[in-house]
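Task: fold both queries, return tokens.
Query 1:
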Amino acid sequence: MVKNKIKVVHVHQFKDAFIAVFAAKLIASGKRPKVILTRHLVKKGKHSRLYRWLYNHLDKLIFVSELAKNEFLSGVQAPDNKITVIHNSIPENIPVLQDIDYRKRFGLSRNCLLIGFIGRLVQYKGVEMLIDVAEKLRDRNIAFLLAGSGDKEYELRLQKIIKDKGLDTRFFLLGFLNNTAEFIAKMDVGILPSLWREPFGLSILEFMRAGIPVITTNTGAQPEFITHEETGLLVAPRLEEITDALIKLLDDKNFRNQIGKNAQLFYAAHLNYALFFNRIMTVYNA
């Protein structure tokens, strides 16, 4: 650390924080780097003597949401001056857009509306509920496209459910995509029906940044950056509410466009990567 003139060690797991703090303690006083940890989970802090020692010896403990901070502190005490919340953001990489025509690829009509999902294909992300939504709206000219992967056995189970319900011409699993920006740009609506407490849903931010209206649940930190019917549609993780929210966007193109525009403006003003970077650097330089 001294040889390389390292001034800050930023870790994202407590096991790494222990190593960093112990290593820093071995360095002569006055030359020690700061040790900063970002907490990405919604989980109570551990209360053992060893962990309490660690909390006191970290220079800063960053949480990605108020929800993550409050849940952590419901189990432990930590010095107030060491704690801060910095919402996540997405690097402003310029995507290489490809001319992928998803409607043509899947044999859909030109005016078919595309509903996009990005994330791991796991039960707690509400993927099966999306299949139920598709079933309820099978008479609508819409298609669900899911970008992401998960456990192979679970993916096969999803494929079977889709086929058994006769939705294999309206519900498509695309697997892992390297270029999510290109995928998002082709969607009409984004959706994340998460059943668990999201620490901070980055896939929602991706849709917001692109100006695509998004529907998500109120189960986690989503209310910290989604205002219902202003910057997105925020609903309970129930089939009826998610279905009704989607119908509302599908039936009103002006409303759909306005939600997308509001979300894009909110992202640019409050969640952009430059702002995130400056907040992180302020912690580094404090």
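Query 1 returned. Query 2:
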Amino acid sequence: MDARAVVALLYPPACLLCHGRLPDDAAVCEPCRQAMTPCLPPVCQRCGLSLAAPFLYRNRVRDAIHAFKYEGRRRIGAWLAHRMTQTAAAAFPLHAVDAVVPVPLHWLKQRWKGGNPAAVLAQAVAGALGLPYDPTALARTRWTPTQTRLTPRQRARNVQGAFRARPGRRSSAVLLIDDVFTTGATAQACAAALRTAGAERVFVLAAARAERSA
């Protein structure tokens, strides 16, 4: 019996979310997967962005993203990035994409949080798709209060003019990565900055999309 088999015997694989035993090499067990609501197209007709996301932000998906963002569970982030990669391959003309760009955090907030979850996802997605990863293409120019408790109108005002794209870099299409797409205010502000800097098209890929009230 080799070392890997001994480790598997002593420490059987467990679901990243509920910690239940896994019958195979999957990262998330079948009951947890069944509790995740897929985000079916069309995903967004209000904001005008080309958007894709594998899940709706509810139940186990909310648990997974929270664990990744606030508990540092990088294996969950890798699993989310894998599902995002599958979604992007089905939703976007990836042959036209020449940069994968994360939604940036202000440098103070990034230092406070210990990193940027969107950047972790973007780097993994870019690697899986074989696309260039460009974390410096977009920068946040000012600190903005958290969007969590703001109305859609307040969110739009909060991030207006808060992003600047690196000048002098024209691109056919950019794949913009975030963890959760809520009202679209942040993605729209980022897309506007990227288009001003020369991007012809901006596609948005998130791990989950928040449900919109009627």
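Both queries returned. Flag for query 2: The radius of gyration is 18 Å.
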